Amino acid sequence: MIDNVPKVLIIEDSTSACLFMASALEKTGFRVITAPNGQEGLTKAFQERPNCLILDVLLPGINGFELCRRLRAMDPQHRVPIILISSKNTPLDHSWGLRQGADRYLSKPFTEEALVQSVVDVLPKRSEPLVSTRHVSANQPSPLRQQPLPDIRWLIPYRIENDELMRLYNPSARRLYTAIDGRKNIETLCTITHLELKEAYEALQILLARHSIQLYSPEGRRVESLPLFRNP
Predict the structure, then answer these.
(1) Is the pTM of the predicted complex or chain greater than 0.85?
(2) CATH class in words for 156-223
């Protein structure tokens, strides 16, 4: 089934580099989505919920370092691995990239084998054998599997008052923030605000990143963060 094949999001403004990486990963059995800049990459990360991200450091608009920091702010437990790629290859460049939250820093130019092996290495380990980096048919699905997805419907958000948050650019986040009262769970809030669960999930990520809410389980246990980019 295609849903069981790991999905990789490549954020790279060079068309040739993007095609090179996409071809290498697709031949090995991964699904690939691409974005030419940081802003579109951030949007596709929410929409597509990839299993791994590959970010070029030099991007128009939001650069790779800044994008990596934003993503990690929403995923402090590193549930979704990030690989930074760059032509800069000094020890300081590598160290700085990892300090931004990346799991791997891959210097250009690199081979297809090095790219695929880096993706395989950072993906969560499974009990099945890892996909081979050589001689895999493009039509052969990867044996890697996604982890079970959590259910967020019963989580209860608590609002941290902040007048500036009423001017949030994201209308779904603003609507959800206004409706939070510390008693209603996400399912009830979706009904009140007329938000789809997917929209509420994205809004929650934005509010968590701004430290404007806290999440609790029905048992009263604090939930530090949501799994990043996973379909609730």
Answers:
(1) no
(2) mainly alpha
Q: Domain 2-122 - what CATH class? A: alpha beta
Residue 26 DSSP code? H
Residue type, 171: P
Tokens of 56: 């070029």
Rounded-to-integer distance, Cα 228 and Cα 71, Å:
8
Per-domain boundaries in the chain = 2-122, 156-223
Residues 97 and 65: their CA atoms lie apart, in Å, by 7
CB of 53 closer than 8 Å to CB of 71: yes
Long-range CB contacts (within 8 A, 24+) of 210-214? 210/162, 210/165, 211/160, 212/159, 212/160, 212/162, 212/165, 212/177, 213/157, 213/158, 213/159, 213/160, 213/177, 213/180, 214/157, 214/158, 214/160
CA dist 47 and 89 (Å) reads: 32
**Cβ burial 149-180 (10 Å sphere, 16+ → b, else e):** eeebeebbbebeeeeebeebeeebbbbbbebb
Tokens of 207: 């509010």
Q: Which helix (H) or strand (E) holds 41?
A: helix 38-48
List, run by run, the mean pLDDT of 10-residue segments along the chain (232 residues): 75 93 91 92 86 93 89 80 89 86 90 91 56 40 39 81 61 87 87 88 81 78 61 42
Q: What is the pLDDT of residue 134?
A: 41
